[in-house]
UniProtKB/TrEMBL annotation:
Belongs to the WD repeat MET30/SCONB/SCON-2 family. It comes from Talaromyces marneffei (strain ATCC 18224 / CBS 334.59 / QM 7333). Residues 28-74 form the F-box domain. Residues 366-389 have a biased composition (Polar residues). This is Probable E3 ubiquitin ligase complex SCF subunit sconB. Component of the SCF(sconB) E3 ubiquitin ligase complex. Residues 1-26, 355-389 are annotated as: Disordered.
Length: 561
């Protein structure tokens, strides 16, 4: 059988049809013809997921869907509006015929004064939205930063605006950047080689690019440094000579130019440091260090927390502490001292979580021995039993205590935290609204409260870190019973859920001359020990100090950006 010719099978292909947008559905591309203003109106009505997907369509849609004003309104609707509505008769929102109105001025947003910068156009609102979203979910990235090798020193740590300040006897003061690239910024040894730092505090400096660092020592003296973050250098500003009793300073709080210290002998001192003073100031200068108040306590126990707040006309020094009460077990007390700007003492008050006592017990010596004016506590309901504050009794001392007005938080070995609200005015000081916070599955070793109702707690081994929104816990009291039950189950907190960064841990040169310590160490949680349970956080990160056996101390940086 003969084969057919190849040419018989040849078929001339039909011309390729040119595809046009919308052909598959038989329509036309109306979207691309719309103006940017109309597209922005459309994008303002879609969901967040759709908004993110639109940025992948084209360069034009990437710019439109990433519009800062668009994300600013989403941020307002998601994070500002619910909070403002929870405040009775809130003055931060204007009423309109459609409900609550959006204000483009961030300064009018409740609790967002830190974003009310002079140049509001510099705020990347999509980044701010993603940051808040990640905090609410506990989603973050974990990086490690090694800070010391054996012999491991006793180290003090504070975190401020992406900069970690460490202080120890061997290396002195060091500053580390926790933002990428993570590195050591600078270091400065202490003038006295035998001086051991025992207390550390950081505050905003002047100018804004500086951080004020205050270090207390075991011989009773303290020094104030300025860290210039831009230049990467420490400069000593003032150093106090040792006191006559030379007692170890155990805690410090600062609100420039005021400084509050406490010693291991329970001696509280409040100082005023003039802004222009230096370590070379003559001792006869009328503007040198000034002691405003000194008081001694006979019945305060660790843990304790110091706080300084400055108003337009007053300086408020607060000392939150724990003590044992024979009827109520371990109890919390707050001593508050008020001064005017000239340093003249105005008043002092004491409030405790003990139930209202008979008249004879009002002046029981539970706090510092300065004349105080006890006010009865208006206790309200707790979460579980809806009973008074006295229903929450602790047989063991709290493992840590943190106070940032108006929130006072204590952590306990029974897997819980206790939150109190502190009400302070010119007339009275009251601690009330105590409640248990549940969520941890093991004991809680440390808790830190921020200045905007956020708190972070950590377990002894550091394998459970939880983020708490304290305002949602407070609002649950006025919510239906189902909301209170949700808070009992821990829904006012989330556990950090991280992914490990591929970047190896490292450290740079230190004051001891050691270099290139950084070598990647395998991540072994079972061998890790949490050093003193320290935890700190700022707007973007949670930082935990961890010690891996006797090999190294390093910082775990949980980045939410």
């Amino acid at each position: 059988m003969s084969k057919r010719c190849r040419s018989d099978d040849t078929i001339t292909p039909s011309p390729k049809r040119q595809r046009t947008i919308g052909d598959e559905r038989g329509g036309q591309d109306y979207i691309s013809k719309l103006s940017d203003e109309i597209l922005l109106q459309i994008l303002s009505s879609v969901s967040i997921d759709t908004l993110v997907k639109c940025q992948r369509v084209s360069k034009r849609f990437h710019a439109l869907a990433g519009d800062s004003e668009l994300w600013k309104r989403r941020y307002f609707a998601q994070w500002v509006l619910p909070r403002a509505r929870a405040v009775p008769q809130s003055r931060h929102l204007k009423s309109s015929s459609t409900g609550t109105a959006y204000s483009p001025r961030v300064s009018k947003w409740l609790g967002h004064g830190h974003l009310a910068t002079e140049d509001s156009t510099s705020i990347h609102w999509k980044t701010q939205y993603r940051l808040r979203h990640n905090w609410s979910r506990g989603t973050c990235r974990l990086d490690e930063l090694e800070v010391s090798r054996p012999p491991l020193p006793q180290i003090l740590i504070k975190l401020y605006s992406g900069v970690v300040i460490t202080a120890d006897k061997e290396h002195g003061l060091r500053a580390w950047s926790t933002k990428r690239p993570k590195k050591q910024l600078t270091g400065l040894p202490f003038p006295k080689e035998d001086a051991t730092p025992t207390a550390l505090y950081v505050a905003k400096g002047s100018p804004a690019s500086c951080i004020e660092v205050t270090v207390g020592f075991d011989d009773g003296h303290f020094s104030v440094y300025n860290l210039d973050v831009t230049r990467g250098e420490f400069r000593i500003r003032f150093s106090q000579t040792s006191t006559s009793d030379a007692t170890t300073i155990t805690a410090i709080a600062s609100a420039p130019p005021y400084l509050l210290t406490i010693s291991d002998h329970k001696l509280f001192n409040l100082y005023k440091i003039p802004p222009h003073i230096t370590q070379h100031e003559e001792s006869s200068s009328p503007d040198q260090l000034r002691l405003l108040a000194s008081l001694e306590s006979n019945n305060t126990f660790a843990p304790m927390s110091l706080s300084l707040r400055c108003s337009a006309a007053e300086v408020i020094a607060s000392i939150a502490y724990s003590f044992f009460h024979i009827s109520n077990g371990w109890t919390i007390g707050i001593q508050e001292l008020r001064f005017n700007k000239d340093g003249e003492h105005i008043t002092s008050r004491l409030a405790t979580t003990v139930a209202v006592q008979p008249k004879a017990d009002e002046h029981e010596n539970n706090g510092p021995s300065i004349e105080s004016n006890n006010e009865p506590n208006n206790h309200s309901r707790g979460f579980t039993s809806l009973s008074s504050t006295t229903s929450i009794q602790h047989k063991e001392a709290p493992t840590s205590l943190s106070y940032s007005h108006p929130f006072l938080l204590t952590s306990h070995s029974d897997n819980t935290l206790t939150m109190y609200l502190v009400f302070s005015s010119a007339d009275k000081l009251v601690i009330r609204d105590s409640r248990r916070l549940w969520g941890h599955t093991s004991s809680v070793s440390n808790v830190q409260v921020g200045d905007r109702g956020k708190a972070v707690s950590v377990s002894p081994r550091g394998n459970e870190i939880r983020i708490w929104e304290l305002e949602s816990a407070v609002s649950s009291l006025s919510s239906p019973l189902s909301s209170r039950r949700r808070s009992i189950r821990g829904e006012s907190s989330v556990q950090i859920n991280y992914e490990k960064s591929n970047t190896p841990s490292f450290s740079l040169s230190t004051t001891s001359g050691a270099r290139d310590w950084s070598q990647h160490v395998s991540y072994q949680r079972d061998l890790d020990v949490l050093s003193d349970g320290w935890v700190g956080f700022d707007e973007e990160q949670v930082v935990v100090l961890r010690q891996r056996g006797l090999r190294a101390q390093f910082l775990e940086c949980y980045d939410f950006t």
